[in-house]
Design brief:
alpha/beta, single chain
């Protein structure tokens, strides 16, 4: 517990322009591999404190409820999800 408190304190004193933590992204395999992964390389270099988990599968939607963001191509059928056009 004390270690977590110290990590929190250190993270609050860090560079405000740097992102940290874990970002979980789910995407279709083909699109994620050919388009998303290459676009994320410069982003991860810019934010070395950010741990990126890229989950690529043929059907990432709607079974990826543990992801922070889901890239989905097509109609969103689950009304509990919020869609944002990229």
């Amino acid at each position: 517990l004390l270690g977590q408190i110290e990590e929190l304190r250190d993270s609050l004193h860090g560079d405000a322009r740097q992102l940290g933590g874990t970002l979980r992204i789910a995407a279709p395999f083909g699109y994620g591999r050919s388009r998303l992964a290459p676009a994320l390389v410069p982003f991860t270099r810019q934010h070395p404190q950010l741990k990126l988990q890229l989950d690529l599968r043929e059907t990432p939607f709607p079974d990826r409820h543990d992801a922070d963001a889901v890239v989905h191509i097509g109609t969103v059928r689950d009304s509990s999800w919020v869609a944002r056009e990229l």
